Amino acid sequence: MKNTNRSFGQLFNLSFGFFGVQIAYALQSANISRIFATLGADPHTLSFFWILPPLMGMIVQPLVGKYSDKTWNRLGRRKPYLLVGALIAVAVMLLLPNAGNFTFAQSAFLGLNAAMWFGLFSLMFLDTSINIAMQPFKMMVGDMVNEEQKGTAYAIQSALCNAGSVVGYLFPIFFTWIGIANTAPEGVIPDSVKWSFYAGAAILILCSLYTFCTVKELNPEEYAEFHGISQESSAQSQEPDKGFIELLRDAPSAFWTVGLVQFFCWSAFMYMWTYSNGAIAANCFGWDGLDAKDVAFQDAGNWVGVVFCVQAVGSLLWAAFLPKLEQWFGNKGAYAVSLVVGAIGFVSVFFVNDQYVLWISYALIGAAWAAMLALPFTIVTNAIKGGNMGYYLGLFNCTICVPQIVAALCGGLLLKFVCGHEQAGMLVVAGVLLLLGAASVFLIREHEDD
Predict the structure, then answer these.
(1) Cβ-count burial of 448 within 10 angstroms (0-12 exposed, 13-18 middle, 19+ buried)?
(2) Alpha carbon separation from 360 to 9, 26, 194 (Å, rounded)
(3) In which band, very low, low, confident or very high, does the pLDDT at 4 lie, cut at 50, 70 and 90?
(4) Which of 9, 269, 279, 343 is in Cβ range 3.0-4.6 Å of 434 for a Cys bridge?
(5) CA-CA distance, 433 to 437, in Å (whole number)?
(6) Buried b vs exposed e over 63-83: b needs ≥16 C-beta within 10 Å?
């Protein structure tokens, strides 16, 4: 069983629910700055609202990995977490865009009005649930796919990820196109955004249920045979008494070297998600930078979804080109080239004043995104051995979360002192960070004997 290949259909079923999860994540990524600016947030504090998503991911994903490593029941090992996370996410997606509709007292606490506090806690629960639902898909590939097919399995997951992103990003402009209002009274989220979240919630639960019903996870005996470990280690997780400090101490070097690259890459994308709306509104729609309920700002919010969609399509196309790059330059060379191309895309946003020319910029950014989705987990899962796969992948997620937290904490200061209050300048900062990531790629040791 250890060397048994899985059919394309089986690999597809393992990851199909990821399509729905990614729609939810795309809606969050493209609309959070828009939502909180509409609720009254100042541009210099916008990045602080982005601290919660990676913070919750850093807490939740290692716990999901740790406890799902030890979960063996009739529902499966990872699937119970997938289902619970999806159900919570659906509930929160119905509430979050309505933060401005509920009647709250008008008093402020720590500079935030009650609607922003409601939105903040809703965002916390949304990202917690998305992380709970997302992590099992990565773990099931590690559990059930051999090394020969892992690249294919993660490529399918990457394709579904980008397809889900396209759908989620386009929802607001689609609903605006069919006649749903894209503006609303002060402090109220437009109906086009609300219906986007409602549709995303419906697709999320349907896709998650599909994977839940079509995938049969390995039992302890099958898992032990597949991974060549003892059945006792399979059932209880190999070296079960190790804490996360010991696991990190014993982590393969690939865990740390890929993590360094991740730091620069995910910091860059945090600034893209946070400041694209304001940058595009000012550069291409004539927004004065003052009123978030302005038509220019809300129209730019829809266009952010479009250019993020272009980024996802660019990522899909670049992912198809990545194998050729790997043949020419090797894994590390292809990784570095992809990040440099993405850096060019980020820097170019600062100079673009035509909304359609932005398609080129964000398509180039997609090259970096493709590499970030395809290479890190393949390198790391191939380097990890034993029954702690889920726990390690959860800990590895911290290399995604920590840089976003650091970037969010520094965002307001960089905007003020480095970028002169121009949100487009933060995309230049993102480009510089990707160049640093490209340089760091060459420190990666894919094998311990390298």
Answers:
(1) exposed
(2) 34, 20, 29
(3) confident
(4) 343
(5) 6
(6) ebbbebbebbeeebbbbbbbb
Give residue for tokens 């090797």: 330
Tokens encoding 188: 């109220």
Question: Per-residue pLDDT tens for 366-385?
Answer: 999 989 987 887 778 777 76
In the chain, what are the helix, strand and coil shares in percent, each to the nearest 5?
Answer: 75, 0, 25
Query: Which residues are 112's β-sheet partners?
Result: 109
In order, the DSSP letters of 237-273 are -SSTT--HHHHHHT--HHHHHHHHHHHHHHHHHHHHH
**Residue 65 vs residue 432, higher pLDDT:** 432
At 128-161, the pLDDT tens digits run 888 888 878 888 887 888 877 877 887 788 788 8
Asked if residue 355 lies in contact with residue 285, where contact means CB atoms within 8 angstroms, the answer is yes
Instruction: Map out the domains of the chain as residue ranges.
Output: 8-443
CB atoms within 10 A of CB 6: 16
Asked if 158 and 133 touch (Cβ cutoff 8 Å), the reply is no
